[in-house]
Every structure is written in structure tokens, then in C-alpha cells.
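seq:
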Amino acid sequence: MRLLAWSVLLGVASVLAPVLLGPALFVAALLIPARIGVPLTARLLGWLRGLADLHRLWAVRVMDTPIPRPYRSAEPPRAGDLRQVIADPATHRDLRWLPANATVGLVLVGLPAGFLLFGLVGIAAFARWVSSAGVGGATHIDVPAGPYIGEVPDGGDGHGWVFLLLGGALLIASWCATRPAMRAYARFLRWFLAPPQTTRLANRIAELTQTRSEALDTQAAEIRRIERDLHDGAQAKLVALGMSLGMAEKLLIADPASALRLLAEAKQSTGAALSELRELVRGIQPPILADRGLDGAARSLVLASPMPIELSVDLPGRPPAPVESAVYFALTEILTNVTKHSAASSAWIRIGHRGGLLDVMVADNGMGGASTVPGGGLHGIQRRLAAFDGRVTVASPVGGPTIVTMEVPCPLTCASS
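struct:
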């Protein structure tokens, strides 16, 4: 019944979309020389993309048929970019899909609904025949929407049962044809709305080039951070330690008390340098992450948090070490942002692995309004996970709550400890 309801809904959309969008796009294109058509065309093409995206979402959610977005830019079309939008081959496919969806698509999605409609008409005609036959005499059945209209003898002649047989057969046909018709429609959508193989390869090459560049930039920035921390922290303390030991050596005979004082200061400097080196090592690869995996490392973050955090981990194994490290530091960055900026009183974390994806979701009850801006923390998380084909989704309406979802494709390699 759910697919049958989708059949009706998609059939209505197949009829209304070209009726409303087609003439509007034509008029907007004619008005482009008058400049008013530029923003209007961009807005209408954005609506067309939104309609196509809804069909892609239906295909993957209902029929398990993923259809990648083929557009060169993930942003909605804007008036200033209209030339590039019109030149995009994906826009041409959307425009070809619109009339095709009103013809071939309508037949595919309308077939089960049509069988259902005529089946119900047949059953209604049979019910009227039975009701009229009970009175006796010849009966004229007036069926407005059905093809079977005419004189039907009374109950002595069984021709009226044809209504029941045909109606029942059409209802059974509707039930049997729904799923195959919806599958065929999903394949039809994929044929029109998915990018061709050459486009997918070109987009993939561009994506890998960008993620490689960002990964190299991130790695270089991390190396510079480590060098800066060593230079300004532990290295400076070790230099001071050497100077203190040298002065103590000179004063050891002439002024033993001052030499002892310098040795005590040197001892303190040694402890401070070791502490900074330990913190630096934890920033590179926390020992708890190597020993207990993402589960144990996440629990340590929850215990160290000043706010109550509910944690749920469902990992039957361990991700690869680079993925584990990237997700851990992304989780650390998110929790730091929650503590500093969200004004939240509680949060929760869900970590799982489904369908080949490491899925991490972090939510808080703060004031919301978080967004991904270049140079910001969330943008840094996106760049970090993009090196593993990961994806970060942020839902943070003003007033809250904020939900950050991270998905990284990876296998689980070994049993977690």
C-alpha cells in the first residue's frame, strides 16, 4: 500500500511539474534580454533541481537505488552564475527529464494506480448490478467511468459477474504490478538524473585532487604546529635547563647554596619539559586511542567533559588507525566547540558502523546557529575527513538543537578490546 500511495503521489507530480515549471521556464528564458529573466530563470532552475533531488531522495530511500547528484556546484543556482548553470550538462538532463517524466514516467507510476481505479469501478458496477438485480427485471447499469455500460439481465443471466471478475483481476494486477513498476521508474530516474560515467570519473578526479591538496595542507599545518610547540615549549625549557646546569657547575665550588638552588630550578624545568612533551605526543596520537580504540578514547573525552554527555557506542570491530585518529580529533573539536560556544547543558554521542560507514553523531541542546565557514572548526573537520571520503552534515537551526553527523566509509579490521 505504501508503494501504491507513492504511485499516486508521483503521478500527480509528473503531471503538475511540467505544467507549472515548463511554461514558466520558457517565459523566463524569453525575458533574459530584459534582465528580469536572469534571476527568474536562476530561481526556476533551482526549483527544478530541487524537484530532481526529491526524486533522487525517493529512489534511494524507498527503492534503494542511489542516484548521485551530477551538478558542478552544490550551491543553488544564482543569477550571477546563470551562464555556468545553463552550460552545466546536468541542467540539460534535468530539462530533458521534465517532459519525459510527464510521459514515460507517468505511464510507469500511473499503471498501478490505473489498475486500481478501474478495478474499483468494476467492483462498484458489480455492486450496483447486485442491488438492481434484487429488485427484479432488466436493469440498465450506468457506470460513468467504466467501459462496461449497457443492458444487464437480471439475476437469471450471469453476465453481471463479469464486473466482479474484471474488477478483481484489475485489483490483483494493481497489487502485482506496483513494485515492478516502481522499480522500473527508479531505473528510469537513474537513467535521466544520474551523471554519465565520463562525468562521474571527471568529478571523482576533481574531488580526489581537491581532497589530496587539502590533506597535504592539513598535514603541513600539523607539522608546523608540532614544530612551533617544540620550539616555543619543550625546546625553550631544555635550553634554559642547559644554561642552569652550566651556571650551577660554575658555582658548585664557590657558592654551593646558589648551585643547589639552580639545580632545583633545573629539576622543575625538566618536569615541565617532560609534561609538555607528553601533551605534544597526546596531540599526535593519544595513547588511549592506540590502546583501547575509538570506544575507549570517546569515553575518556566524555569523562573529561564539564557537562553531562550520554555516549552510545556500537562497534563490533576497530576502524583503520588513520580513520580512527581522524574521527577522534574531529570528535574532540566538536566537543570543544560545544563546551565553549553552544551554551548547552547536555549532549549525546552515537557511534556505530552500518552499511560500510563509520557513523558518528553528536548533538547538544544549546542555542544552535552553528555553520560551516571557511577557516572555522567545522570546515577543518570536513577537510580532515574528506581525505577518507568522509562527509560531515550540520543541522543547527537558531535556538537549537545542533546535530553534527560524520560518515566515513571504512571496514572494521579487528575485534575491539
